[in-house]
From TrEMBL:
GO MF annotation list: 3-phosphoshikimate 1-carboxyvinyltransferase activity
Protein name per UniProt: 3-phosphoshikimate 1-carboxyvinyltransferase
Subcellular localization(s) per the UniProt record: Cytoplasm
Keyword Transferase: yes
Function summary: Catalyzes the transfer of the enolpyruvyl moiety of phosphoenolpyruvate (PEP) to the 5-hydroxyl of shikimate-3-phosphate (S3P) to produce enolpyruvyl shikimate-3-phosphate and inorganic phosphate.
Residues involved in phosphoenolpyruvate binding: 27, 100, 128, 175, 352, 393
The keyword Amino-acid biosynthesis appears for this protein: yes
Amino acid sequence: MSTSSNIKFHVKPGGSLTGSLRVPGDKSISHRSIMLGSLAEGVTEVTGFLEGEDSLATLNAFRRMGVEIAGPDAGKVVIHGVGKHGLKAPDAPLDLGNSGTSMRLLSGLLAGQGFEVTLSGDSSLSGRPMKRVTEPLAQIGAKIDTAEGGTAPLVIHANRSMQGMDYKLPMASAQVKSCVLLAGLYATGETCVTEPAPTRDHTERMLEGFGYAIRREGAQVCLTGGGKLSACNIDVPSDISSATFFMVGATIAEGSDVTLEHVGINPTRDGVINILRLMGAQIEVFNERTVGGEPVADIRVRSSRLKGIPIPEDQVPLAIDEFPAIFVAAACAEGETILTGAEELRVKESDRIQVMADGLNTLGIDAKATSDGIVIQGGTIQGGRVDSHGDHRIAMSFAMAALRATGDIHIDDCANVNTSFPGFTGLAGGAGLRISSSEDA
Ligand code: S3P
């Protein structure tokens, strides 16, 4: 889990990004590969698995529930599935560290087991809203206790009597959608989820890959409980959310030309490409292919002059994790960028609207937080010291901002970069970012 030491990033101004890079595996798909591989019958081999703290938290949780899992070894994981009813009670609470995806998906998957289990997390995760999963799970018949305020730890009671239901998501959230669908595997009859806007559909695709029938009709997705999952092999593409830092960095830094290899471009995740293109970025998506049911491509990005835009609200759920980096692009653009309809950003690993507005202000950029978004005037990024508040994506976004800064940028509280992007400083440094890190015990 996240370390108690404070890793700081120090980034010298200027430079450009060049070369061909492969960023680590997709976090969302890595989590799901462990979950479904564990519940499957047979042996699932995963390649390209993200060896970050978040997906390792999921892997360790399943080991603690009796699943034999070999690896990860250079991205290879071999899962000896125990079948849908083969998990065993862990001997202590499952600590999921910083990982919201682990906690929200596991709450659904574990709601229908024959044993009690407690899910806990670090201070960030323990402050994040869990009612969004415990409320629908209560409707399906699960018994879950939360801390006051509806937060973790979650105590999930043994329960073998859940009834399928039709749930209308109040917010666009793939974690909540997935939670309900995973609970639906253990419910009687049909479980349906209707979403207000499309969100990442990795759970649905992977369930199909494991041979589980899914019915999709418009905004609704349904499955019938009681079926079984059959092991399959999974090749995890590179994470478009991690590739984003290089897309933004190469766009804003003069003289850049970067190719990102084997990146997942699932249409429920490609908002960052659409938004950066609308701002004027030169992004070429080529060599498109399908790998294990997920669309994948190589992406070439060259430096471009950007202009501020009103960000189309329909792109918000499709780029939800990419906004900290998009805000850095907006700070380098000519004119005003306005984001609305993105209140979900306030309940991520940090309040990403406020933390980014504060950091951009420190670096001399006019950025105003609003209740559901931000208004950023493009300008000159100055050097300074900013705090990531332990949020991996904030830390990496401000690191890329140095490519256009007039002075050094120092970033505090960066240890959690390891939750999603182990090796970030090495890969970014090799591509041309003038980054170093230090550690206070
Ligand atoms: C994720 C869904 C998104 C995203 C998170 C990963 C997933 O969260 O922000 O990083 O893997 O399902 P929400 O469902 O809260 O939007």
